[in-house]
Amino acid sequence: RYRRMELSCPMGGSAAAPPGPGPPAAAAGAGLMEGEEYESLPSGAALGTHMVAGAVAGIMEHKVMYPGDSVKTRMQSLQPDPKAQYRSVYEALKKMVLTEGLWRPLRGINVTMLGAGPAHAMYFACYEKMKKSLSDIFQQGGNSHLANGIAGSVATLLHDAVMNPAEVVKQRLQMFNSPYTSVLGCVRAVQRTEGFGAFYRSYTTQLTMNVPFQAIHFITYELLQEHLNPRREYNPRSHIVAGAVAGAVAAAATTPLDVCKTLLNTQENTALSSLNIRGHLSGMANAFSTVYQLGGLPSFFKGVQARVIYQMPSTAIAWSVYEFFKYFLTKHTLEKRT
Questions:
Q1: Could you tell me which residues the Solcar repeats occupy (predicted)?
Q2: Could you give all domains of the chain from N- to C-terminal order, each with its CATH number?
C-alpha cells in the first residue's frame, strides 16, 4: 500500500529543481488506493504522463511570462546603453515596445520554447524514475525524503544541461542593440567566435542558483499552505497566493546569482571593456568579482524588481496548474471507480 503523498514530499522540502512546482504524482490508468484522497495521489506513475505534463507546464510558464523575462534581462545589464536605461519595469516594457517595436519583448521566445519542452520533460522523467528506485532502497514501500532530494538534484543537472544553451541564446537576443537577428544566427556566431563552451559558462551558476531558489520556494509555499489551507484541499486561491509569495521571496533572495548568470551569458562588451577584461568571462567567482567591481553591492540586485514581478505570477501559474492537474486526475479516477 502506498503511503500518503503530501505536497511537500515530491521535492523533500529543499531539493533543487527548475522553477515551478514539483512533479504531478499521477498517471493515466493508475487507480487510487482505498481511502486515498486529493492530496494523496498514487506514486509509480507512467513515465510518459510526467514527461508530457512537465513539458506542457514548462512551455506554458515560460510562454506566458516571457515579456517580463525580457525586461529582467535588460534591467540586469551592468553598463547599459543610455537608451536602454529604465527606472521601472513598466517604463522598460513601454520603452521597448515604442522604440523597438511591438514584438521586441518576445524576441528569443522560440528558442525558450524549444528548450523548455525537452528540459522539463527530462526533469520529470528523471525525477520520477530515480525517486521510485531510491525510495525502494531507503524506505521500502514508502516515500523517502532523502530519495526525493537526491532525485531532484540529479534531475536538475539534466534540466539545466538542456536549458542552459537556450538561456544563453535567449538572453543575447534580449539585450539592447543585440547584433544577432535570429536564433540560428546567434548559435552559429557564438559557436564560431567563442566555441561550444560559451553555451555552458553559466551552468554552475545556474545550478548554484536553483538549489537555494527551490529550497526557499518550497519551504515558503509549505509554510503558507499550513496557514491558508491546513486541510490541503483543492483551493485555487490558496495555491495562487502561496505560489506567488513563495516565488517572490525566492526570486529576491537569489537575484545576485541571477545577475552573475546574466553577465556570463551575455558577456557585456561595454562592461568588460571598462575593466580592461580581454577575452571572455568565465566562472562564478570571476562573475561575482566583476559585478562587484562594476558597481559594488547594489549591482547584485539590479533587476530585482523585474525578477520578482516576473516570478510571482510565474510560480502562481505553475502551482495552480499543478494543483488543478492533481485534483482533476483524482476526481476522474474516483468517478471511473464508482
A1: 45-133, 143-227, 234-328
A2: 43-194 (1.50.40.10), 201-314 (no CATH)
Length of the chain: 338
Q: Please name which of 45, 38, 33 lies closest in space to residue 7, comparing C-alpha atoms.
A: 38
Cα–Cα distance, 182 to 126 (Å, whole number): 32
Nearest alpha carbon to residue 210 among 20, 12, 5, 9: 20
Nearest to 165 by CA among 144, 182, 190: 190
Query: Dihedral through CA 166, CA 168, CA 170, CA 172, nearest 10?
Result: -160
Encode pLDDT of 266-280 as tens digits: 888 878 888 888 778
- Torsion-angle region of residue 101: left (phi > 0), alpha (psi -120 to 50) or beta? left
| Cβ-Cβ contacts under 8 Å for 156 (sequence gap 6 or more) | 15, 16, 17, 18, 123, 207, 210, 211
C-alpha cell at 199: 553555451
Cell of 10: 515530491
Q: How far apart are CA 274 and CA 14, in angstroms?
A: 39
At 146 the three-state DSSP class reads: helix
Q: Which three cell numbers stand for residue 230?
A: 491546513
C-alpha cell recorded at residue 14: 529543499
Give pLDDT tens digits for 121-157. 887 778 778 877 887 888 776 656 677 667 777 888 8
Grid cell for residue 275: 575593466
